[in-house]
Design a protein that fits this description.
Blueprint: H1 3-9, H2 23-33, E1 45-50, H3 53-62, H4 68-71, E2 74-80, H5 82-115, E3 119-120, H6 128-135, E4 142-150, H7 164-167
Antiparallel strand pairs: 1-2, 2-4, 3-4
Length: about 170
């Protein structure tokens, strides 16, 4: 799929079919994530792959009962790793660059999923401490975004976008 087609076809999907995501397809997504840019190429993020029903249910409850998290065959939890970025960039690396690294990685996963015919939706509303505990994240790993991935079970609701004139400021 052409990159610009991927941009056009990417929409938030909150209804997933029961069709599993194969290991090969998931690997393609994760390999795409591994190509994401990061500050100083420090790759200050880790990904927790959640597929067990019990963990998805717990994540759903920690995410204010967003039920589609259980429906998705796989949920990727992107964690910032501040210590990895702080090595080179001190406080700014610890408080900003690692979060940018994790969110860029999540975006690459979202776009790769779209290119492969899957759907996803960015999830940022969750109890960070609860998710950290549920996924058994290492100390210092900060969950910043979750991405449920699966085959769409419903057409997405297309929402209007802001006009370029409203978001681009020429200086």
């Amino acid at each position: 799929m052409d990159l610009f087609d991927v941009f056009a076809k990417r929409h938030s999907i909150r209804a997933f079919s029961e069709q599993p995501v194969t290991d090969d397809v998931l690997r393609q997504i994760l390999e795409s994530v591994n190509r994401a840019p990061s500050a100083g190429n420090l790759q200050a993020f880790d990904i927790y792959q959640v597929t067990k029903e019990e963990h998805k249910k717990a994540i759903m409850h920690a995410s204010y009962d967003q039920e589609f998290l259980v429906q998705a065959p796989v949920v990727l939890v992107f964690c910032a790793v501040p210590s990895r970025s702080a090595v080179r960039y001190t406080e700014r690396g610890e408080t900003l660059y690692c979060i940018q690294d994790a969110t860029i990685a999540c975006t690459f996963a979202m776009l790769a999923a779209t290119a492969l015919g899957l759907g996803s939706v960015w999830v940022g509303a969750f109890d960070e401490e609860a998710v950290h505990k549920i996924i058994g994240a290492e100390s210092g790993h900060r969950p910043v975004a979750m991405l449920p991935i699966g085959y769409p079970n419903a057409a997405p609701r297309i929402r209007p976008r802001r006009a370029l004139e409203d978001i681009v400021h020429r200086v």
